[in-house]
């Protein structure tokens, strides 16, 4: 039996909004340690990894490891029916082919049960090794989202270049070119407004803006985003989920001289 | 001669927004007692009844009973040109084939006259007898609107079941099922947030969500909605219009085993 | 070399929003006195004239007069990438076929350079003589915008009639007629809410609402609009740009009995 009670239910809504456009169907894996998901996007270019640790739930019961295949669009439709202050409980009986989302209003005057059919989804779980990155940029997530959106109005790809002084985002399109430089800045009033650059060596990598803009759908989950760059690895765009876990997006850089989208080498 | 002056003109705008999607053309009936309308929706399934009592107008002159046929979409276009704080006066000369809507800004610095052609519309006025209902539910109108909208993302029909403890709204669709229970609750800070259930006997009836969602366009008119249910009668969904009257929507329940939409037996 | 630094960069964004739907491509003329533009709309019916005086810029360097042809839609795309509090600098090297828009965030932590290709655009500069008008109406720009929008839901043209008492805007369409009278009113709390009418002789002129509604895109630039009317001249609809200059729109009246759109006789 599975019963996961999340007091801040709106968080689960935001998680679904962050990934449903990228991934159609996916297995949610539930074990004693947490509720997680790993899935390629539908064009098999980007990878999403989600973790919500068991400690973040008010009540967490998972008798045996299970993998529940869900259509994320349908799941999102159901979660959208919850109120923003509702407590959400995910429930499944052993061997059942359905999952139930229960929404409780703060006053307990309104209780909703949404039952969804599960799907059989083939998936292979990729081991993602811990890696050393050439540069790690932490910046306000809203700033990163605006930059990706702005550049997409000019071009299709973004070159992210990191030096000790700052990080540069560049693009080129039919109507012209754009370069946006964000400087390292740690002396801000609010820590979440800082831009912090850890750099082992300078790096300059090219990515498809379409995917970057998909990743920024996770912006409401966190005030900051962490971008980990290495010339031999897919970039990791990570949004922490307060006290619970994270969403990480992986995307392989585009090879210079080769404008085709390449699969990530995770 | 007809001259009806409504200080809170925005109320008339809201009335039109509430019914114009359901009804295309309708006769407004004007008598010494008030300004009213009764009309079937264009597919002849639901019935709307509006009453604005003469006492609610600052000035109310109606020399003889008249029935004015209007295209509600055109009337809505004109009313949308009024400011939210404008005073609206409805004027018609005896025997005229036009009606005039006059809008006065609060400062009287802007006066608008919109003249609309009247239409000849055949209509029969249905007598709606006072009836006993098995159950009457009064609840916050925004809550009811959210429930109807949420359920429509899952299924096409809603089963409304009333017991002493609460009212349950259920649906079923391709992606799963949904049950929303709202409990009786009379101990709230604000009376308009209460959910009050008067029940003579339990009742469970099925309705087309499409119509319910049309009815909830009247939500801006009132903080509360009253739903009167009986197994032998169309449901009545009523929005009171403060100190003036009401909008009531009537819809026949769907017969079990028969998924076709049936006409209301008013 | 050209370098124009505008502290209130959002103003340039608003200017582009005001004219980009009316004019596709235009020459911006830069001289020691200011940054200006004069262009016919794409159907050659209306004329736009923009002036931003050099004194309004924090830094203004223009070594020699130049005319820079720009696609306003592309320019708008780039300016939309600036933050609302950003300082915008327009830069061009002598003989270059590109222009650069530089955006500096208030904290200087984010610096963006957008480079756009210039175009060769044929244009003739029309001399617009100072003229005497029969009537000049100054009114709140939001009020004028609402009137033009409201009337366009009823008809295609607006008759603007000025008397000493006020200004009347009228239209006629399939669903009826509309008359909106705005009275002269100089005794208001805030000067920008006044409606002031200077009249030498009564005037009544007809204009295409489609163009009037395009002109009102400039509403965010100024709280007031000035409408100058004369039976022998195109109307001038002017929005002042605080301490810098103006946008003026010119449109020839429609001739009675002739419903075709006529070119302005500027």
Automatic annotation (TrEMBL), chains A, B, C:
Single GO molecular function: DNA polymerase processivity factor activity
Proliferating cell nuclear antigen PCNA C-terminal domain span: 127-254
UniProt keywords, alphabetically: DNA replication, DNA-binding, Nucleus
Domain Proliferating cell nuclear antigen PCNA N-terminal: 1-125
Subcellular location per the Swiss-Prot or TrEMBL entry: Nucleus
InterPro entries given in the database record: DNA_clamp_sf, Pr_cel_nuc_antig, Pr_cel_nuc_antig_C, Pr_cel_nuc_antig_CS, Pr_cel_nuc_antig_N
Keyword 4Fe-4S on entry: no
Main location (coarse class): nucleus
GO BP term, pick one: translesion synthesis
Top-level taxon of origin: Eukaryota
Any one of the GO CC terms: PCNA complex
Function of the protein: This protein is an auxiliary protein of DNA polymerase delta and is involved in the control of eukaryotic DNA replication by increasing the polymerase's processivity during elongation of the leading strand.
Protein family according to the UniProt entry: Belongs to the PCNA family.
Protein name, as recorded: DNA sliding clamp PCNA
Organism in which the protein naturally occurs: Hevea brasiliensis
């Amino acid at each position: 039996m599975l019963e996961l009670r999340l007091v801040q239910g709106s968080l689960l809504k935001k998680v679904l909004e962050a990934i449903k456009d990228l991934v159609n169907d996916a297995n949610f894996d539930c074990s004693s340690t947490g509720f997680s998901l790993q899935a390629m996007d539908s064009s098999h270019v980007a990878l999403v990894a989600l973790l919500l640790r068991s400690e973040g739930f008010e009540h967490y019961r998972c008798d045996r490891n299970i993998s529940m295949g869900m259509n994320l669009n349908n799941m999102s439709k159901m979660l959208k029916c919850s109120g923003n202050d509702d407590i959400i409980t995910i429930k499944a009986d052993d061997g059942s082919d359905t999952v139930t989302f229960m929404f409780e209003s703060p006053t307990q005057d309104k209780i909703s049960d949404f039952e969804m059919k599960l799907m059989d989804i083939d998936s292979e779980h990729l081991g993602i090794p811990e890696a050393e990155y050439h540069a790690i940029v932490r910046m306000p997530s809203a700033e990163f989202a605006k930059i990706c959106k702005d550049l997409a109005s000019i071009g299709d790809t973004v070159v992210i270049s990191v030096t000790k002084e700052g990080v540069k985002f560049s693009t080129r399109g039919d109507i012209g070119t754009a370069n946006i430089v964000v400087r390292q800045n740690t002396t801000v009033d609010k820590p979440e407004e800082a831009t912090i650059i850890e750099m082992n060596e300078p790096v300059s990598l090219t990515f498809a803006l379409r995917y970057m803009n998909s990743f920024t759908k996770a912006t409401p989950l966190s005030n900051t985003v962490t971008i980990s760059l290495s010339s031999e690895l897919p970039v990791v765009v990570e949004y922490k989920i307060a006290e619970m876990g994270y969403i990480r997006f992986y995307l392989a850089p585009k090879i210079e001289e080769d404008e085709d989208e390449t699969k990530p080498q995770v």
